[in-house]
Description:
Elements: H1 2-37, H2 41-47, E1 49-52, E2 61-66, E3 69-75, H3 78-85, E4 121-125, E5 148-152, E6 157-160, E7 165-167, E8 179-183, E9 186-189
Antiparallel strand pairs: 1-9, 2-3, 3-4, 5-6, 6-7, 8-9
The chain binds FE2/S2 (inorganic) cluster.
The site of FE2/S2 (inorganic) cluster has 13 residues, from loops.
Amino acid sequence: MAIDAEEPDRRDFLVLAASAFVTVGGALTLWPFIQQMNPDAGAQALASIEVDLAPVKEGQAITVLWRGKPVFIRHRTAEEIATAKAVDIKELIDEYARNDALPEDALATDPNRTKEGHENWLIMVGICTHLGCIPKGQALGDKKGDFGGWLCPCHGSHYDTAGRIRKGPAPRNLEVPVYGFISDTKIKIG
Ligand code: FES
């Protein structure tokens, strides 16, 4: 009885192991084949990412990698939103929204930098528009500059709580990539 009971288990294990090997082997063999058939398949796979925002509490920020670039995601406080909304466009160095989802001439109002109904989330490519350094302001102890957003350590560009350039040599606001909410707590970038 004991032998009978053991035999199927062992056989199952061998079958499972063989299946796993075949699956992995198959995947390894197929990948270059798929790539060859459709050169864009790999690029498309990386073209968009999904990010779960649930763990990011108000006042916190995370950085994710998308198409090789850092993307800043900040869960803004009510005060940060109010400060960003109170800014007159005329005070801005760059009056354009730089939001890839909007026309090029859309103005850099706070609503044009965020999504309606989700104004507490600011999502931007975290690359300084001066010479490409990564601004500070994501980590809790970081200096956030004179406008409470981000401070580029390379040549001192200050960005506000909507990611708009307010002081320093950077010519443009931080870029807002195309993204959408697929649920209340999940976004898809790209
Ligand atoms: S690269 Fe950011 S200020 Fe120069």
